[in-house]
Amino acid sequence: MSAKRVYLAARGLIWPNAGADKSAEPDEPETALPRRQLSSVLLTQFFQGVQITLPFTLSAYMVRHFEGPDASEQLIGQLTGLMAAAAPFSRFLSSFPLGVVSDYVGRKSIILVSNITSSLGVVAYGASTNYLQAMLARLLPGLLNGSAVAMKSMLGESCDTTNQARAMAIFTLGWGMGSVVGPLLGGVLGEPCNQFDGFPLCQPGQLFDARPYLLPCLVTGGLGIVAFCSNLVLMDETLPRLQGKGSLYTKLRPARSSSDASSLQLTASSSMDDSSKHRHAPAETTAEETVAGAALVALSWNFLDELTPIFVSAPTKQRGLGLPLEAFTYPVIFGGVILVIYSLLLFPVYQKAVGPLHAVKVGLIGGLPCSVLVPAASLVGGKRIPEEAMLFLAMGIKGVFKIMSMTSSMVLINMAAPKSSIGAVNGAAMAFTSLARALGPALCGTAWALAVSLEIPGQQFLGFLLMAVAAVCTAFLYRGMKLPGRS
Prior knowledge:
By secondary structure, the protein is mainly α.
């Protein structure tokens, strides 16, 4: 095959000339985004990202603190894995019911309750004095946390095909920033009595001596209160039959907010008109298909997210890198920066040009190099700079293609869901993606343990190979889908 044919094939994959699956024509003017609404969504997603990922740093140290120095590594690993799965599992149980409830009581009420319960839960987690308390603090708030379900439904109702990609990019941006800040916050503020000389309340028996992981949780709880206040003041209800209930801002400043509210109502009306024209054609993609696709996308990336730290921290005799936590922190930060830049500047333009269906497939296939680059870092003979360079490259690639596939899968759900039950559909999607995130730690630990037990050349690649297979299979699932109203 000639170089020209390879180039043309690659260009066709990344930026197809045919517009068969575009969600909006390139020359169609973009509807103005509801800025106040999105500001509150961004703050809420940032807080949720922080409170969900904060335990990624703290849990292992917290379990060691609870169980004492005589606990076996096997027990530490099992208890840490269970704690990591607690919050996603509880959201798996509650997401669909909360999505259905939001179709009756509205999106805003669910978001308000979610932020308050999450704030209280993360503070209770940091204040825990034993393993059972910490597990309950992660499990119970998740049963009332339907923020992601309600906000996805809200964006589906307040945006149309011209601006939904940009709105979903902002939604994902909030989570991306939070997921970077969460582990860092835990690492910097956890165990302050050991990290900072003369820190207050560190005398024997005082607050931060008895509860060494409370400080980062207090800061995170404060972020939740800020998000809650932004919901009260800035956020408008988008459920069609409750749209008259505006935000506190619209009640206090009706003249200034009228254009934003009009844009919100016009967009919702336009979105409903589009759906009435294009929904339910026999050959079109169903909501069930998009929900299944989103869950598989989440599982593929969660596998990489969970397996990478295990591999990076594993001893070199087990074909890992044996790197300390701080050495892996910088590649993670780099990936977060790439995610923020790409989601703000490039992703909305790209998805509008090629459509969400093509973008989700490119995101899945484009992320495959990560499943090779990460384990391949163990082949450079223990040289620190090449190892970290490969991790930087892998995290940068992940920052681009993860947001591309995950955000596009969300857009497809809103496009396929009937407007009368968009909350229930997003609830089902959140339930299955949460189940994927709950299964991820267990699957990764099992896959790594099995790979290590084989003691064969290249064993470190086996777990990552599963991520690659899952991504390819998911891309083939999306290949058979068809956007509403497209031939």
